[in-house]
Amino acid sequence: MPEVPPDEEPALRVEGLDVTYGRALSALRSVTLTVPHGTVVALLGANGAGKTTLLRAVSGTLRLHRGTITAGRIRYGATDLDGRDPVAAVRAGVVQVPEGRRVFAGLTVDENLRTGGLGLGRRRPDQVAEARDRVFTLFPRLAERTRQTAGLLSGGEQQMLAIGRALMAAPRLLLLDEPSLGLAPQMVHRIAEVIREINAQGTAVLLVEQNAGMALSLADTAHVLEVGEVRLSGPADELARTDAVKRLYLGETTGTAESTVSRSEGQGAA
Amino acid sequence: MTTFLDNVFNGLALGAVYALVALGFVIIFKASGVMNFAHGSLLLLGGYLTAVLHDDLGFAAALAVAVLVTAAVAGAVDRFLLQAGGPDPHTAHVQTIVTIGVDILILTDLSRRIGGDLLSLGDPWGDSVSGLGPVTVADSRIAAIVVSTLVIAGVFALFRYTSWGLSLRASAEDVEAASLMGVRLVRVRTLAWCLAGALAALAAVFLAAFPAPGLERTTGQIALKAFPAAILGGMASPPGALAGSLLIGMTEALVAGYQSDLHVLGEGFGDVAPYAVMVLVLLVRPTGLFGGKAAVRV
């Protein structure tokens, strides 16, 4: 097992990834993308485009959905992640906040945060305390509610808890699946600030969103998935100016296509 | 009055032993979504091992070996039979049916070995009795209450304070979210089976001890009485399993104690009573006493 030394700056590299569900349904076809160290990368696309599938492949939870990687590879730094179990991803520093928050409703806020460290095995108490302090600095509201049952939190608070839970594993790459889903506009704004803050502290972010406006405002680079293939890739601000993205994801009707964005059909690689 | 206290005490002792079994059911269900129909034969295995080993090893060592071996067998059933294809949350119902097959296998072999015998487990209490206020009770029943209480408190502490307990509760709520946090689903689950097996082996001692005549090949069927206890507690709730067990134990003891007054219900109503109570409770509370949404695993 090659472990990456901490001073290296690992990147997530997905190369030519094919994913199939139940041996028949092709969900991703030769998807290639990179999340460099310390950046925010947005992944846009409609329902069923394969965004969540990509995150499942990275985190190693495809198996729970009867999905398999049929081609390609996923590496984080020097660690191979394709075909590995979720523990491998967490240990490598890649932690996912799943769509729909998925906090453990019957557990307290404090216990939810404790689950975030389960993948790392035994840790020194001061490391755990440090991670917890970081979470409570980002989300002071959670600090006030440690004994409360997570199921009784508001939607926004649950999203904060879900992010906080993932941060307890001290990730170097955070995978966020639709963090703005079902939240009030003000809370969406707050979550965006938090993502910026987490990134400023040195954690890379792969942000899956249907809220393209928010995602593109945060991201350095962005990719657009359509029916399992990468259709567009490029710097986020340039993608935001392209016709296709404006029309399909930002709800605008006019604009001129003028950019260095690479378009790729069929092969998917940009 | 003395009869009443006698019956209540017996009910308490029975309930404490059922609780060991019912807690095992619940732990397994929580961890894997499987109803373990092999629980009775695991219990019988634990009792049988204690019975055949105690002459050579002494009671304590024999029980220790029996508990460890039963835990290992339960863990192996889960790891190598039920989870052979990986931790797939969609096949709990299939695995439940597999446990019926496992039950038949273990039970058939143990029945062959035990035959019509009544095996003594060599427990230190024998048939001694003590005066407890106005009632005279069997020492083995006092031991049953004390040991069960301690062990159950220990299990609850495991749930609450250890990583394993946290992993178990988290994965019972949401398998995928738990696995995203790096919970080792296979290991957490198998350990749950081991713990349930150990509890069953321990329960066997008290089920075979005085005033029961000893271990018979049918002793494992006692587990079937803990089954309604687990169900009426809510199936996924450990406190519910405790309450359910006490209710079932108490019902059985009272019905048996006042059998002459309940003659209209016929002989042996005590055996049926647990199920009658279960049906009555479920009529009023379909998800069990402590069961809520948590009883449903998706």
Characterize the structure shown.
The complex is a heterodimer of chains A (270) and B (298). By secondary structure, chain A is α/β, with parallel strands linked by helices. Chain A has one domain (37-61, 85-261): 3-Layer(aba) Sandwich (Rossmann fold). Chain A is built from ten helices and eleven strands. Chain A has helices at 51-59, 86-92, 109-115, 125-138, 140-143, 155-167, 185-200, 212-218, 236-241, 243-249; strands at residues 12-21, 25-35, 40-44, 67-76, 79-80, 94-97, 173-177, 204-209, 221-226, 229-235, 262-263. Chain A has a seven-stranded mixed beta sheet with strand order 6-7-8-3-9-10-11, with helices on both faces. In chain A, strand 7, helix 7 and strand 8 form a beta-alpha-beta unit. The longest helix of chain A has 16 residues, at 185-200. The two termini of chain A are 30 Å apart. The relative contact order of chain A is 0.17. Mean pLDDT of chain A is 88; it is low at 255-260 and 264-270. Chain B has a single domain, classed as ABC transporter involved in vitamin B12 uptake, BtuC. Chain B contains eleven helices and two strands. Mean pLDDT of chain B is 89; it is low at 294-298. Helix content of chain B is 70%, strand content 3%. Chain B starts with a helix and ends in a 14-residue tail after the last helix. The longest helix of chain B has 31 residues, at 2-32. With 298 residues, chain B is mostly helical. In chain B, strands 1-2 form a two-stranded antiparallel ribbon. In chain B, helix 1 (2-32) runs antiparallel to helix 10 (238-257) and helix 3 runs antiparallel to helix 8 (185-208). The A-B interface holds A 59, 61, 63-64, 66, 85-87, 89-91, 95-96, 98, 102-107, 111, 114-116, 118-120, 165-166, 169 and B 86-90, 163, 166-167, 169-170, 173-184, 294. Chain B: Belongs to the binding-protein-dependent transport system permease family. LivHM subfamily. Chain B: It comes from Streptomyces olindensis.
